[in-house]
Specification:
By secondary structure, the chain is an alpha+beta fold. It has a domain of 66 residues: Beta-grasp domain (Ubiquitin-like (UB roll), Roll). The chain has a five-stranded mixed sheet, with helices on one face. It is elongated. 14% of the residues are buried. InterPro entries: Mopterin_synth/thiamin_S_b, RnfH, RnfH_sf. Belongs to the UPF0125 (RnfH) family. It comes from Paenacidovorax caeni.
Length: 108
């Protein structure tokens, strides 16, 4: 690899349980949009993206070894999903109640 190049990994999850990763080599001074174009992945133009889990605009500069991530919209509100999981598991199998000492008070 020449001094004037950088490597980045472009990651996207088009559907639940499906992850696509492509490693790209770009010239120094490249931006997030350049990495997305070089990846060859068919991604929506308006999809939000980020570097290492932090949202950034598409014109943000890349550094060598960056992980460019493309995010998709949530299908379920995380709070609702947690409530539904709690109902399925039951109160005795989740949270503080799951780790209760034998003979201990409820909630401790």
């Amino acid at each position: 690899m020449a001094e004037m190049e950088l490597r980045a990994v472009v990651c996207a999850s088009p559907a639940a349980g499906q992850v696509l990763e492509v490693e790209v080599t770009l010239p120094a001074g490249s931006r997030v949009a350049d990495a997305l174009d070089a990846s060859g992945l068919m991604l929506p133009l308006d999809a939000p993206c980020g570097l290492w889990g932090e949202a950034v605009p598409r014109d943000a500069l890349l550094r060598d070894g960056d992980r460019v991530e493309v995010y998709r919209a949530l299908t379920v509100d995380p709070k609702v999903a947690r409530r539904e999981r709690f109902v399925r598991q039951g109160a005795r199998n989740a949270g503080l109640f799951a780790r209760r000492r034998p003979g201990g008070k409820a909630g401790y």
